[in-house]
Amino acid sequence: MSSRAITWRLFLTCWVLFSMHFATNIAREYYPAFSLAERGTLRVDPYVGLHPDLFEVPGRGAFMNNNPGASIPAALPYLLARPIVDPLVARAAAARAASGEELTADYDDHRPLRRKFFKQVREKGLDLRFGMASGIIQVGYTAPLSALAVVVMRSVLLRMGFGAAWALGLALLYGFGTPVFFRTGFINQNLAVAHLALFSFASIYRREDRSPSPRSLLAAGFLAGYGLFCDYSGLVPIVVLGAYALAKLTAEHGTREGVLRSLPMVAGGVLGCALLLGYQAWAFGDPLYPAQHYMPATEFSGDGWNGIHLPALDLALQNLVDPRFGLFTAGTGLLLAFAAPFLRAGPGPRLARREQILCLAMFVGIWLFASSVAFARLQWNTGVRYLLPAVPFLFLLGATVWARLPQRAVALLAGATLLQGWSLAMVRETPAESLATTLLGGLQLPWLTVLGKMGAQYLPFFEGRAPDPTLLFVAVFGALAWLWWPLRSQGRSLDDNAEVTP
Question: Which of 114, 209, 260, 325 has its CA 20 to 30 A from that of 423?
Answer without folding.
Answer: 114
